[in-house]
Each structure stands twice: as structure tokens, then as C-alpha cells.
């Protein structure tokens, strides 16, 4: 498959899934801004937010709202950052919503997104914690 996120949706590519619903799946970003950074993608390929059919807005952003709440509850975040890039700065040509856990004084400023990596089984631990609340 030419679209990485379509391959993740189909199971052809691995990911640390946190949510699997009828219209949307969620998985950890492999290069998170902060650990617990989730990507939400519609199951059906749409490249940008303007391409998304109106009937998928509520399922996608309803899930974004739930994931943002779960980060406070499960990860001890003070809040979250929710973002969508359309074409410019879009790392994969499949619509995806970033939901990033935030903490006061975490160092994130403006649109500078430093990236980190998970160590060992750490990604699966974060995915398990989020999955428990989102199930």
C-alpha cells in the first residue's frame, strides 16, 4: 500500500493501537512530541480535513475529545494539544488528528514540535494505559 496510515488501518503495518472504532482508529505516533501522543485517522482514506465527508466529523472529533480527556485521567497530563495539518507539514497524505498530552512548563512553544522516542516496551505501556480508558 502506498499510504502508511491505510496500511496501519488494514493491519499490514504494525502500530501501538489505543482505539479501534467503526470509523476511526487511534495509535501512538512513533516520533511523539511527548510520550502518549496519539494519531487519530479515519478508516477510509481522506487526505485532508476539507476532503472529510461531514458525516465523519462527529465520529473523528468525538474520539479526539475522548482521547484528550483520557490523557488527563490516565497519563497525568494537565491538558492536551489537538492539531490537524492540511497538506503543508502533513507527514502522511492521510488525514490525521494529533492529540498530544501537555503539562505546564513542558517546553513546547508555538509550533516548534520537538520529537522524542519510546524506550523498549514503553510505547506498549502508554498504549495499554490509554486503551484501558478508551475501550
Question: Which word captures the global form?
Answer: globular
Query: What is the β-strand count?
Result: 5
Write out the CATH superfamily name. HIT-like
What is the count of DSSP helices, taking H or I runs of 4+ residues? 3
**Percentage of residues in DSSP E strands:** 15-25%
The CATH architecture = 2-Layer Sandwich
What percent of residues adopt helix (DSSP H or I)? 25-40%
Task: Kindly give the count of domains.
Answer: 1
List the keywords.
135 residues; alpha+beta; 5-stranded antiparallel β-sheet; 3 helices; 19% strand; single chain; HIT family, subunit A; globular
Note down, in words, how this protein is organized.
A five-stranded antiparallel β-sheet has the order 1-2-3-5-4. It is an alpha+beta fold and 135 residues long. The chain starts with a helix and ends with a helix. The chain contains three helices and five strands. The protein has a single domain, classed as HIT family, subunit A, CATH 3.30.428.10.
Q: What's the layout of helices and strands?
A:
Layout: H1 4-10, E1 17-20, E2 24-28, E3 38-42, H2 57-75, E4 79-83, E5 97-102, H3 122-134
Antiparallel strand pairs: 1-2, 2-3, 3-5, 4-5
Helix pairs in contact: 2-3
Task: Give a summary of the structure in a few sentences.
By secondary structure, the chain is α+β, with helices and mostly antiparallel strands. Helices cover 29% and strands 19% of the residues. It has a five-stranded antiparallel beta sheet with strand order 1-2-3-5-4.
